[in-house]
């Protein structure tokens, strides 16, 4: 019987694999034994798919995928799956329109997230807005995709929308940055009454002294509403003599004031160890972008980019991961305060 409840509907056909016998019993996440679930050259003209987001849709699953074209320019592609593991991709990139129905394609687009709020599906990505910033679009049928106003000025990345309004407003996580591969970065929260005007900015949490997130952090999958608070999988970055290493971390945010961190795991939940995480176009990357979760069983499937070359899948349960985060929690003053100065 689950003690930690996921607030939300059931997804009985979600991808799932019980913990393999050879998986670490002291860690709350375990990898799918058939990883990676998306390999190289997945569709004509696309060399690699990674850092992508999926969601239950109709009788199966649908996703927005970072497709690195063979010319090196990233765009977002649509994919569908019956089981959340085997994917069919549309050959052409998603055809974004403006609100008048005219073509309005970004210069480039990468690291998308996909979240449903009140029957509308919102896509967020990083793009060029005279500098790296956040692009957004909406759809109700995955046939027409209407771009909406960019929420922030450059420079910003890692936009993650909460799956419901909080205190009447949309709530968005982001990571203000600079124009390059940012050597710093904290997670902030912003609110909007209409998905156009954003304010009430609050600091959520920053990098920590722990080695695996000592350079910067950023939002990952959309927060999962649980009986303990908002469960957030995010990425933490450290620096080595051979470049950055991206690991997956976990925290629990206050349900009504999510700029307040209730619990934050001092240990990573997943770090590059397998060949498809350590070896690729950008080595040593595990980058979470989406979860599928089942309110009936507490099961959680986490989709993550691996080495900027593949998509991997990991599993856990709400009980296991929340218990682990709470047991290994270290919350600092800048985490637990409201985030307003």
UniProtKB/TrEMBL annotation:
Superkingdom of origin organism: Bacteria
Pfam families on file: Glyco_hydro_130 (PF04041)
InterPro entries: Glyco_hydro_beta-prop_sf, Mannoside_phosphorylase
Record keyword Transferase present: yes
Any GO MF annotation of the entry: hydrolase activity
Keywords: Glycosyltransferase, Hydrolase, Transferase
UniProt keyword annotation of Transcription present: no
Family, per entry: Belongs to the glycosyl hydrolase 130 family.
Protein name per Swiss-Prot or TrEMBL: Glycoside hydrolase family 130 protein
Species whose genome carries this gene: Candidatus Blautia stercoripullorum
């Amino acid at each position: 019987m689950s003690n930690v409840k996921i607030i939300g509907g059931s997804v009985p056909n979600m991808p799932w694999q019980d913990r393999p016998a050879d998986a670490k019993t002291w860690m709350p996440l375990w990898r799918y034994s058939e990883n990676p679930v998306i390999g190289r050259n997945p569709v004509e003209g696309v060399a690699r798919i990674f850092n992508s987001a999926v969601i239950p849709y109709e009788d199966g699953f649908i996703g927005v995928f970072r497709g690195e074209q063979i010319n090196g320019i990233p765009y977002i592609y649509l994919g569908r799956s019956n089981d959340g593991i085997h994917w069919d991709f549309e050959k052409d990139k998603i055809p974004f329109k403006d609100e008048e129905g005219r073509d309005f394609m970004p210069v480039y687009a990468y690291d998308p997230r996909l979240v449903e709020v009140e029957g509308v599906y919102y896509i967020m990505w990083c793009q060029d807005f005279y500098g790296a910033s956040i692009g957004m679009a909406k759809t109700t049928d995955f046939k027409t995709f209407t771009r909406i106003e960019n929420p922030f000025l450059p420079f910003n990345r890692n936009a993650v929308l909460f799956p419901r309004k909080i205190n009447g407003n949309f709530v968005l996580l982001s990571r203000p940055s600079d124009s390059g591969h940012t050597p710093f970065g904290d997670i902030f929260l912003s609110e909007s009454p209409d998905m156009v005007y954003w304010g009430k900015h609050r600091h959520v949490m920053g990098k920590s002294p722990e080695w695996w997130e000592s350079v910067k952090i950023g939002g990952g999958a959309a927060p999962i509403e649980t009986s303990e608070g908002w469960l957030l999988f995010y990425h933490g970055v450290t620096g080595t003599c051979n470049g950055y290493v991206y690991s997956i971390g976990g925290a629990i945010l206050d349900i009504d004031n999510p700029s307040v961190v209730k619990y934050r795991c001092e240990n990573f939940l997943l770090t590059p160890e397998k060949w498809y995480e350590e070896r690729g176009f950008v080595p040593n990357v595990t980058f979470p972008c989406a979860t599928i979760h089942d309110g009936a069983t507490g099961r959680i499937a986490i989709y993550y980019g691996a080495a900027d070359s593949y998509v991997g899948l990991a599993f856990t349960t709400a009980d296991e991961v929340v218990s682990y985060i709470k047991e290994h929690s270290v919350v600092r003053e800048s985490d637990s305060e409201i985030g307003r100065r």
